[in-house]
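Methods: example folding runs. The two proteins below were folded one after another, and each record is reproduced exactly as written to the output file, sequence line first and structure-token line second.
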Amino acid sequence: MTMKSSIIAASLFCLGTFSTAAFAHFPLMSCWFEADKVLCEAGYSDGSTAVEYNVDMFDYDDNLIAKGMTDKRSIAEFTKPDTDFYLVFDAGHENPVEVDVVEIKEK
């Protein structure tokens, strides 16, 4: 192998190995109250949307109390429960995003 072909091979290896990290993105979710509703917008750090993804609501004993799905605007809507809760957006390939009720404000 010549010096030039070794450099090209090493460059291609590095490009293939590290290029996925450059394109990595992670899930995000923000939630707010509107009257008796809880709304959550899910998406990704690269600005892409999360259409038709599950968002689940749990009580503090980790019981599932409601299931939602993001709509074409990447928003999931829930009826506000009478108990403390947290919401989870699990995109499946990254760590899930959790939003606790104490983090949620009126919009």
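Second run, written to the same file directly after the first:
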Amino acid sequence: MYTREEVLDFVEEEDVKFIRLAFFDVAGKQKNISIMPSELERAFREGIAFDASSVLGFEGPEKSDLFLFPDPSTLAIIPWRPMTGKVVRMFCNIFTSDGKPYEKDSRALLQNSVSRLKKECGIELMIGTEVEFYLFKLDEKGEATKEPFDKAGYMDIAPEDHGENIRRDICFTLEQMGITPEASHHEEGPGQNEIDFHYSEALTAADNVSTFKWIVNTKAASNGLYADFSPKPLAGEAGNGMHINISYRKAAGFGDAGMGAVGSSATGGAAGKSDGAESSDNSENLLPYILGGIYKYIEEITYFLNPSENSYTRLGACKAPKYISWGKENRSALIRVPATKHTARLEVRSPDPMCNPYIAISLLINAAIDGIKNKITAAEPIEENLFDNKIATKLGLKTLPQSLDEARKIAYESEFVKSVLGNLS
């Protein structure tokens, strides 16, 4: 967690030759501009200008000057670049020419959502993600194919699992960039892999997902492969999900208010992806209300959790959720409350890796705020296997949107979405 002065000293003392200033378009695709060390002080003071009209979802040419201001706390060395003449990266906040935060900066949206949660509820959400991806071979021209890197299955080992060394390289690189991977393994699909992250506060979690996808793409390319994060790369095989695990802890300066009692109410469980966020037995358990808020709004925010046509091929197939539901230990439910011995958590199983993590987590946070403030609770938990359509149909459960167009229509008509995203929606 560097300060501005520490970053300036680091760049001078550690032979840094290039600074990458990273930001995101509205779809969550990372962009960057590289500056020389001599420009870094100006970047902190005045910002670095860029053409907003050339960025997806930003401004037209008549109002195209925006400015990047680096966040010094996100400084990281890019370890696959030379160690002599280092390259570092910082994420940025975006401002307009009159010094106001840019309303379509999704990273700022998440910062504001985190601040609102602390102010109004006295807590912060801790987020742990589980991100899946496929590795495909390249053809003789270096173009991506749909031929998987291996034919292994869930948690298989070498020699069937060919991705073991690449996952290890990815995990080492993550650690070098200050990110803690928790676990990695082969997933169900041929050539499919998963890496899970230790829980962290929400902004860091979104930053970590963005960095992770960049690292995976880079390491796949350096091994003559193509990494595919799309929700359904292969028909008939498991899709790529990005499960989001949510726990909470008291925010600094808010005493014991808002701490979840372990095992209390309907949702006793664990934290982050790991067990780890604090808990207290002397206060109200807020997790049922967090769950209730997300349950209430999940249909309205699905467009942003599952933003591609391909997303709706995944949902409802190969163990991806279809029905709006929650259950204790039930992996067929959309929201799962795991069985654990420590701090309570829930797992939202519908998002996929093509979502903008800053927008996705912002919407989940604001749904949680509404749930807490209005003491919203979900319907009764589902114990049945919802992957069995005959069983699910008898229960009469509502489904998630069945297409991107349907999801978009529901989102655009949602007052909740408008209240959170404004012009981003």
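Comment on the second run: Residues 202-222 form the longest helix (21 residues).
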